[in-house]
Amino acid sequence: MTEENKVVEKASELGIQQLNLSYDKVQDRLLFRVGLSDDTEIALWFTYCFSRGLWAALNGEAHLPESKAFSLSLIHISE
């Protein structure tokens, strides 16, 4: 079993305590952190390209309402 599979398996057994999304202007990346009930933290860095593709997929497939103001704020963050 790979290390990544162990982390995923462990995360599925634990409860999520906190979700945090922040922007790192220096690296021009979004940092998504998941805090688990055993004080473990999983950190995922999302590039602009990945975030844009994820956002498009969520808007197209999940039928989420799109706010023009929110879309504009995402564009501002990414520049």
Structure explained in plain terms:
The chain is α+β, with helices and mostly antiparallel strands. It has helices spanning 3-13, 48-61, 68-78, and strands at residues 16-24, 29-36, 41-46. The protein has a three-stranded antiparallel β-sheet. The longest helix has 14 residues, at 48-61.
Question: Which properties best describe this structure?
Answer:
alpha+beta, 3 strands, globular, three-stranded antiparallel beta sheet, 3 helices, 79 residues
Biggest sheet record: 3 strands, antiparallel
β-strand percent reads: 25-35%
**Could you tell me the number of beta strands?**
3
Within the largest sheet, what's the order of strands?
1-2-3
Please write the string of helix (H) and strand (E) elements. HEEEHH
Shape: globular
Structural class of the helices, strands and pairings? Answer: alpha+beta
Figure out the total of helices: 3
Q: Which spans of ≥5 residues are poorly predicted at pLDDT below 50?
A: none
Query: How far apart, in Å, are the first and last alpha carbons?
Result: 40 Å
Average pLDDT metric: 76
- What share of residues is helical? 40-55%
Radius of gyration: 15 Å
Write the layout of secondary structure elements.
Layout: H1 3-13, E1 16-24, E2 29-36, E3 41-46, H2 48-61, H3 68-78
Antiparallel strand pairs: 1-2, 2-3
